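Backbones bend. To wit:
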Amino acid sequence: MTCLKTIVPEPEDIDIPALKAKYKQEREKRMRSEAGEQYASPEDNFVYDTREHDPFEPVVPRDAVDDEIDVAILGAGWTGILAAFHLHQAGVTNFRHIEHAGGFGGTWYWNRYPGIQCDNDAYCYLPLLEEMGTLPSKKFADGKEIYDYIQTIVDKYGFRDKALLHTEITALNWSEDAKRWIVSTDRGDTIRARFVVMCGGTLSTPKFPAVPGIHRFKGKMFHTSRWDYDYTGGSWESPVLDKLADKTVAILGTGATSIQAVPYLGKYAKQLYVIQRTPSSVDERPNPPTDPDWAASLKPGWQAERQANFLRAANEIIPPGDEDLICDIWTEINRNLNAELEEAGWPQIGMDEFMQRREVMDFRVMERLRKRVESIVDDPETAEALKPYYRFMCKRPLSNNDYYETFNRPNVTLVDVSKTAGLEAMYEDGFIHEGKQIPIDCMIFASGFEVAGDLKRRWGISEVVGREGVSIYDHWADGPRTLNGTMAHHFPNMFFTGYVQGGLNGNTTLQFGEQGRHAAWIISTALGRGIEAVEPTKEGEDAYIKEFREKELDLSTFLNECTPSYFTNEGEKEAKWFLFRGWGPGWDDWQAKMQAWRDAGDMPGMRLDG
């Protein structure tokens, strides 16, 4: 089926200068001088210690482990699983996962809130579909289905029995004599690992807003990543929240989690308050079941082709004649732009004009999404507050077929806290909004995760000390310093994953999986050649940083114009750990660069010991 251009307002029907002024106004009123510090530190666990408390699996006592292995994989979410897969494919099998959860899955282990689904194309997002010989049941797969799929991978490749679960890393120290990392844990373990792959993910440490009076609240509180079905009723598989029938509930946050959970809370709670600082853009969600005829037509290599198509359609440029296979909100701007260029006979235009046209299409698509709000939400004041006034990628693009309709329920109230750039305060029996006390029984925090804050805050590891006693927290005090976005000077045999000075791909499992594949190549090569330690030289690291900065994506417009969110580290213009700092020439160029580096064979820029 051909993916068609969506109907958006014509350029002459929208006032772009006025919208730019409106965008700026909406941004400024939400800005806070504290930036990321507006959230409570992870040590301030006013509900319970989210690092130790696991509502889904009991923590079982075990004896401390004293072990010597080739590779310690720190984390057992998608990144850690894919690192293990690529190690396994490279012939390296002497490894362990060390994970603070009670099982494999990472964000898909912890997040079991009602309505949870993958919010982009599951045929792209779920890795190894061809290797596993399976397909998701629908375009946006449910969280439980994703969790179950993860378990099939873990069991097929035998990762489960090697894992140390419910185990926190407390320290990582390099032993120069042993040429190994000494991994210490809260279970008293001592693991001597030749290599360490850091796979903590980007959505692992829940964060809570530092709302004045939050410690005084006497009602129920929990984070969406620790959903309490004992309190709400229902279950992960059947989210019938019947125990909320006599409860007044508030949910703080209106991002990707909240827009999925709110319809369920609105359906079952006696009263629901949805506390919003910045609205999300929420399109309709086409979520058909997987077509068996389409599935039967797929040829080997189909997933890599689809992932490449998603990258072009969502993040780069769709070449003439290249069909948009994804056909949803993520790809709408480029799809519409290409359709209009095709109608005009593909005129020869330069990159400046292309980007100008793309900017106009951005405004047109966002105006369509704002009109969608007013076409669904009955109350004009509520509808206006729910309209997103910002550029398309300032917040994560979302889709849901029930979110806006929920605000037409008589028991659901939107609480717009944009004027105070966040919730004003809490007290013993509820929260305070514009000086008025609003009693509630339960506060649910859909407040996200530590994504772009300081490294120690996100990792939660007290010390990471490499050669010559250098701490990673000191070496990276002003942001990451790497060779190829993967390894750092002073830290031999340690590999980093995530958004760290490398190529960017809108499909995180593909990006992080390729980082795992690169690490697996270095590890297997070093083990095969008897190399005891691999470390970037200072000159190699400096040269890469210089090249990266010269080619880095120019995100000044994004940082200066977007509303504050985790995408921009709450509007901080010089964020050390800004999420999307990436390789300017693009993902394919980055992959070619990494392949050329591997093909060279001698690991240029590295010190090789042994």
